[in-house]
Every structure is written in C-alpha cells, then in structure tokens.
Amino acid sequence: MARKVLVLGEVRDQSLRNVSFEAIAAGKTIAEGGEVVAVLLGDNVSALSTELIHFGADRVVAVENEKLQTYTPDGYSQALLSVISEENPEGIVFGHTALGKDLSPKIAARLGSGLISDATAIDVTGGNVVFTRPIYSGKAFEKKIVTDGVIFATIRPNNIAPLEKDDTRSGDTNTLSVDIKDLRTIVKEVVRKASEGVDLSEAKVVIAGGRGVKSEDGFEPLKELANVLGGAVGASRGACDAEYCDYSLQIGQTGKVVTPDLYIACGISGAIQHLAGMSNSKVIVAINKDPEANIFKVADYGIVGDLFEVVPLLTEEFRKLKVHA
Ligand code: FAD
Which residues line ligand 1 (CB under 6 A)? Predict the structure, then answer.
C-alpha cells in the first residue's frame, strides 16, 4: 500500500545531521512506493533542501521563521503540526535524537496517534510495516506493527543505511509560511559542552574512556586515536563522575546510546548500565588490565593490558595504515 510519509530533516550548525538521510531511507520503506516528503524547520535552512532530494526525498517543505532558529518544543511543534495538517501524511519519521525524543511524543499526543520509538530496523512483511526495537537495555528485541492511524516512528542513528546520494535527482522544494505564536520559552544562548568534531551519537567510530583513564589528561591518547580514525570520544559514567570529562560524553543507560561500526572501550569495566548504551555496536574492542573485566564478555576483540601502552600503539599503527592506504 503506497503511503505519503513525512520525514524530519534535522539541522545542526546549518548542516543536515546524517540521521536525516537515514530517516529518508526509513521513510521510503514505510511509503512502499508512495511519496517521501522531507520537512525542514529553521531560519535560513531552505538551501539544504537539495541535499535531502539527493538522498532520496521526493519533495521538501521548508518552514522558515526566525522563531525556529533554535529548537523549542513550542515553536517546532507549531510549525510541524501546520505541515502535518497541510500534507496529511500516513507516516512520520524522526531521528531518535535529543530533539526527536523530545518532539515526537508531543506531536503524537496532538495527533492522537501511537509512537514506535528507537527503531533499529524496518521491514515490510505480509503487508505490514514491521519495526524492530531494542528492549531491556538492548538485551532483547521486539517487533511491532501499527494497526491503526498514522505510522509514527523514531529511528536510532547509525542503524538504517541511508540511500546512495544521487546528485542528479530532482524534486519540488516549497516554503510554507507558518505564523508561530508566542513561545513560552526562548533560548537566549547555547553553551556547547562537548568538544567540536564528530557527533558522538552519529559517529562511526567511538573511543570511550572509563575510570581507568585516571585523569582529564588521561583522555589525551584517546582523543589522538579518535582523531586518526575520524571518530568521537565517549566515556563511562565512572569517568564523568570522577570529573575526567563532561557528562555530555557519557554513554549508557542514563547517557547516550551509540551504535558505531567500531567501539573501543579503554579502562571501562563493563557495568550493565554502560553496556546498555553500547552493546549493539557492530565491532567492540576492549582494552583492560583486568582479564576478568565484564566488558570482555561483549567484546569481539579483547586486549588485556595497560591502556596507556596499548592506545598509543594502536594510534601509531592506524596512522601507518592511513599513510599507506
Ligand atoms: P570502573 O568500574 O571503576 O572500571 C574501571 C576499569 O578500568 C576496571 O575494569 C580496571 O581494570 C580498568 N583499568 C584501570 N586502569 C587501567 C589501565 N591503566 N589500563 C587498562 N584498564 C585499566 N555507567 C555508565 O557508564 N553509563 C551509564 O549511563 C550509567 N548509568 C547508571 C545508572 C544507574 C541508575 C546506576 C546505579 C549506575 C549507572 N552507571 C552508568 C554506573 C555503572 O554502574 C558503573 O559504576 C560505571 O559504568 C563504572 O565506570 P567504569 O567502568 O569507568 O569504572
């Protein structure tokens, strides 16, 4: 059954987050041959429309308003609900990002629809769109279908492959004017906690440090390795609690959930709450002095040793490989 599906294009620092392209791919599956309409919300964002078309969107609707310059639940929900009432979609997809997690339940409640959150795979079987999502902190997976109303889902970054970019694709791009009513909250300033560089939740490579890193300076070799591999640095709560790094780097049950292609855990014991945020990574490498550390139970490759010796050696070897590549 062909459907019209709305997909939210998420913008950060005037560029599209990768999850937007993954959402288009998810939208295509749900649309079953129907139309995928990408939505852009912000101030000066229309220029990004073409990229969404190149990644598979059939059409783009941009809502430009200075009140949408920074995300607010009030402003974004007013803008999005206007697009939804104009387009009347049968499916909606957001990224399961901080923004998507905040906005999607509000929109679902307004629409009186259900919401399948944090989907890691979408298939069409037996005439149903079937969503797979992790439960019990990633220890099991459930499959869900929507039996009534709008098919509304958020997708976990790094799990659904985007379509190949095609610079020759074309599609309509429109701007919708929406009167954003007074906002209850206004963001005056955004103070960045995390360092610049690769976004942790979308990174293909994550180098994470735990209490074994021992100090703020102890993160330096990890940053160097991340740099060489084009990855992001993450941390256990142990490292954050010890003030070796900022809480914005925390991975786990009460931190970020990541699913990179490669996760290198350095000096992390592997507590269940940490595993909840990284155990679905595609390849896990653990470096720990203790051969009995729990992290080795989920690791594909384990290195028993001192991280301050192992990490610089890895950096050196990867650097050599890059030079010869
Ligand atoms: P430790 O458990 O102290 O482990 C340090 C490891 O480093 C050890 O295995 C040690 O062998 C190794 N090591 C030491 N020196 C070296 C060296 N030189 N080279 C190599 N290895 C070395 N934790 C999270 O991470 N994320 C969460 O989201 C989270 N949420 C939580 C929520 C709740 C409600 C609770 C109760 C706890 C939560 N925790 C979370 C905390 C969790 O239980 C652990 O306390 C924490 O993950 C431990 O961090 P760690 O592995 O860095 O430290």
Answer: 210-212, 236-239, 250-255, 267-269, 271, 273-274, 277, 287-290, 293, 306-308
Which atom in ligand 1 lies closest to the alpha carbon of residue 235? 25
The reported pTM is 0.87
pLDDT confidence of residue 127 = 86
Query: How far is ligand 1, taken at its centre, from the CA of residue 270, in Å?
Result: 6
Q: Which two tokens stand for residue 139?
A: 């220890």
Question: Does residue 149 sit in the same domain as residue 270?
Answer: no
pLDDT tens digit sequence for 224-254: 999 999 999 999 999 999 999 999 999 999 9
What's the token pair of residue 287? 């470096």
At 194, the pLDDT band (50, 70, 90 cuts) reads: low
Residues 166 and 18 in one domain: yes
Centre of ligand 1 to C-alpha 149, Å, is 43
User: 325: Cβ–Cβ under 8 A, 6 or more apart, which residues?
Assistant: none
Domain that holds residue 289: 200-324
Residue ending a domain, among 133, 160, 175, is 175
Residue 191 banded pLDDT, cuts 50, 70, 90:
confident
Closest CA to 64 of 82, 83, 45: 45
Number of domains in the chain: 2
What separation in Å is there between the alpha carbon of 154 and the centre of ligand 1?
29
pLDDT at 47 over 70: yes
Dmax of the chain from CA atoms?
Answer: 61
Tell whether 310 is covered by a domain.
yes
Residue 109 pLDDT exceeds 80? yes
Looking from the CA of residue 295, the nearest atom of ligand 1 is 9
pLDDT of residue 123: 96
Tokens representing 194 are: 């995390």
Q: Which atom of ligand 1 is nearest to the CA of 293?
A: 9
What does DSSP say about strands 151-155 and 116-119: parallel, antiparallel, or unpaired?
parallel
CA of 133 to the centre of ligand 1 (A): 26
Ligand 1 centre distance from Cα of residue 241 (Å): 10
Lookup result for tokens 């939804």: 84
